[in-house]
Amino acid sequence: MKIEFLDENTKKNVLEDLLKRSPSQYPEFESRVSAILDNIKANGDKALFDYTEQFDKVRFDSETVRVTREEIEEAYSLVSERLIEVIRASKAKITKFHEKQKRNSWFTIEDDGILLGQKITPLERVGVYVPGGKAAYPSSVLMNILPAKVAGVDHIVMVTPPGKDGKVNPNTLVAANEAGADVIYKVGGAQAVAALAYGTETIPKVDKIVGPGNIYVALAKKAVYGNVSIDSVAGPSEILVLADETANPHFVAADLLSQAEHDELASAILVTTSKELAEKVNEEIKCYLEKLPRREIMEKSLENYGHILVAENMDDAFDIVNDIASEHLEIHTKDPNADMRRVRNAGAIFLGSYASEPLGDYFAGPNHILPTNGTAKFFSPLGVDDFIKKSSIISYSEEALRREKDKIIDFAEAEGLTAHANSIKVRFE
């Protein structure tokens, strides 16, 4: 990795590089995605099964596209007892964390018969997209489904691409069953997002779609937003490590590579006030690359989106930390707890040498579905709030309304809305 001194020009170049990874930067895919969405909307199951045959090389019908109880039982026989134990332990941690996010409805009663409040209602039906293809991520299954279960969602519909044998990865199926998916369909890509958004003869329309996917999935979610809700338009993974001279270069290098191995578009950035640490981390990365199996992916990721930035002081370091607003931020400094207070923008913050990013991916409990591409400036990790909606409650007695009626009428008439004003007046004629 290239070591650069941090200045305004360097910062500008880094931010521009990172923005190139956004799904919004690939307009050449949008027309293809739009055609898929329109076809599913018009032709339902037929289009869905045709696309599945075209892209996944498997032909389904309305009976075979749904994962059966027998397939789930078969998956348990193919997954090691050890992994099942790990999935259950992770489920317990994730559930415990998200239970602390639950909200309750509330009401206040004031003088003269005024009742105000907020009613919390879980979403009725949620669609969860789980990537398939080259890799299976049972951890993402847990992270997407469990907050919905904690929120009290009535019906969770999961979609995931099948293998060429027409089956779902057994690790994914076990995780889905443990998390509590109500139904699982063997479809993926933009066509699966369209099916969830519009509904087909087999797959029901949902209220919200969550879960990461490839560029087609990301653009499809972006396109259907408004017809249904979505969590976010997810971009490639990223990590930023903030370190001073006290950091362990061996740990820092390992953590940077933990994200670089995701894919060629992943970003790994070190911001440090120590030139010596920067050089040591760079050497450690070279050593790791010699022995880690996903070397080619990591090298491309680091070449295009990897940076080691040496800041003159911590003020400059925090400026770029907050400008980048990384999905994952690790703080390896003398006092990470104090330094965390200076962070304004980050998806998840890991404090100290032993809070490595994979801890959050798999086991600590906080959600690993996080805002990417700088969207941590205004988005949050997936959580229970993503699966509820709030309704305002208003009740006034006659006497309470009488006391305020003239103010309401004045306001309505000032806006030229005479029917609004009349709605109040008629009650006291």
List the main descriptive attributes of the protein structure presented here:
alpha/beta, six-stranded parallel sheet, 16% strand, five-stranded parallel sheet, 14 strands, 16 helices, 429 residues
Mean pLDDT: 95
- How are the strands of the largest sheet arranged? 1-11-10-9-12-13
Which of globular, elongated, flat, extended, rod-shaped describes the shape? globular
Strand count = 14
Describe the structure.
This protein is 46% helix and 16% strand. It has helices spanning 8-19, 30-56, 69-78, 81-99, 138-151, 170-179, 189-198, 215-224, 249-260, 275-291, 295-305, 314-324, 336-340, 357-362, 398-414, 418-425; strands spanning 3-5, 106-110, 114-122, 125-129, 155-159, 183-185, 208-210, 229-230, 238-243, 267-272, 306-310, 328-332, 348-351, 388-395. It starts with a strand and ends with a helix.
